[in-house]
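Hey L., structure's done. Input below.
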Amino acid sequence: MPIDTTKSQDVSKDIGMSVIFATLRFHRTDRDAELEALRQMATRLPAIAHSLSIRDGGFGVRVSLGLSARAWEYFFPGAPTPAELEDFAGLSSDRVVMPADGSDLFLHVRAQTDAIVYEFMALIMEYVRDHVTVVDETHGFAYFEGRAIIGFIDGTEAPLPEESADYAVIGDEDPGFINGSYAFAQKWTHDMTAWNALSTEAQEKAVGRTKFTDLELEDDDKDPGAHNIASKVSIDGEEQKIVRMNVAWSNPVSGQTGTYFIGYSRRWSVTKAMLTQMLDIHDRLFDYSQITTGQVFFIPSKVILAQIAEGTL
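Output:
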């Protein structure tokens, strides 16, 4: 059975102008009531998204809903589990910690206006609000010229849209979960004062690309831990890719600014290898950042999402 992206959730690189990421944890006090709330959310999600797309008259709303391994086991203990789904336990080096946040439920919602994103979240949360604790809620936005908040073009080395399904969507290697995806969500807060104090040349060496023209530097001109060295992984001589988005977020009055990293992948092991290598090499961006959340989620296909809604999983 080939991959069919019409049966996948929105795991492509389409950031939109307005974004909300939400990670939630179920109370685990009444499984039946919590499962019913999840089913109601899964039932209502397609209709709410469709209605808002009509009301918006353009880009509409893109939504991905995911469950962590701990949530999957809690709600569906007798069901098969996606082959690479695991509860993220955190990763670390002697200098950097990538913490795990223990969240259960993930929502990634993007549109062209704040109003559409707000309306979707306000409507969909009605079904689970009484049963969850908010782990994190991050409001993101599209920065100038498709740049990350640190000033460099985002996604230069990500797969092209027409190729992205091969890297982001599960295929025949796990036939019971075909057209699903793995999402890794991680929130970074940057020391923008320290970053902006660097010269443009020093920033370029840390990232591995020129800031204005987005050209890759020669290897000899990069820092040993340049971001595009540390995050590039090859397996058996073949470079591995994921669909990644680095979404800007900020609370500028309180001086908190950062990047919300979301990576959609066909294999969680590829994303995990990237994260591990970033720690091993020590990505230079770590020197200007603190990581505060992290979890891997399974993004069900629309078929499995419907099974969740119907109670037939």
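The two ends are 20 Å apart (CA to CA). The mean pLDDT is 95.

-- N.
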